[in-house]
Design goal:
- With 149 residues, the protein is α+β, with helices and mostly antiparallel strands.
- It has two domains: 44 residues; 101 residues.
- Helix content is 44%, strand content 21%.
- The chain contains five helices and six strands; from the N terminus they run βββββααβααα.
- Strand 1 and strand 2 form a beta hairpin.
- Helix 3 packs antiparallel against helix 4.
- The longest helix is centred in the middle third of the chain and has 17 residues.
């Protein structure tokens, strides 16, 4: 494993833990050259999921792209990076458990929105505004009124 700080490949595993879902292994590592510590995650490589975009184009499911979108929506909220990782892992597991390897981006967005709605309303509104393409203040107002009820 390559150290993200100095680039050395001379590292050692200090601690290994299974995740709660037992599908990911978290390894705490130490670089023998610079002494810094970092974390890596190991998971089984699964079949490739294909996302069908709104315009009909298809692209490979990108876990990091999904995580990045949720991170942006969750900036300056109480949503932790661990909570975001759990959302992404749960969603990916749900998608891979489905009957098809193809999934519409709309479905992914709805699943994420539902999960965010349960943990942080502000992150939910931010994510929904991009996912549903809110175009004016009235769109926000309608969604906020639904949350208040």
């Amino acid at each position: 494993m390559k150290c993200p700080y100095c680039g050395s490949t001379d590292t050692e595993v200090i601690e290994t833990r299974d995740s709660e879902d037992l599908e990911t292994i978290r390894r705490r590592r130490s670089c023998l050259k610079c002494g810094k510590r970092f974390t890596t995650y190991e998971r089984v490589e699964n079949i490739n999921l294909v996302v069908i975009k709104k315009d009909g184009k298809r692209e490979q499911f990108n876990r990091d792209k999904l995580k990045s979108g949720i991170l942006k929506a969750s900036e300056k909220t109480e949503v932790s990076v661990d909570a975001i990782e759990k959302i992404v892992t749960a969603l990916e597991h749900e998608l891979r458990s489905a009957d098809s390897v193809e999934v519409e981006s709309k479905k992914i967005g709805q699943l994420v929105a539902n999960k965010l709605k349960k943990i942080d309303k502000i992150a939910y509104i931010r994510f929904s505004s991009v996912f549903r393409r809110f175009v004016d203040v009235e769109d926000f107002e309608k969604e906020v009124k639904k949350l208040i009820k």
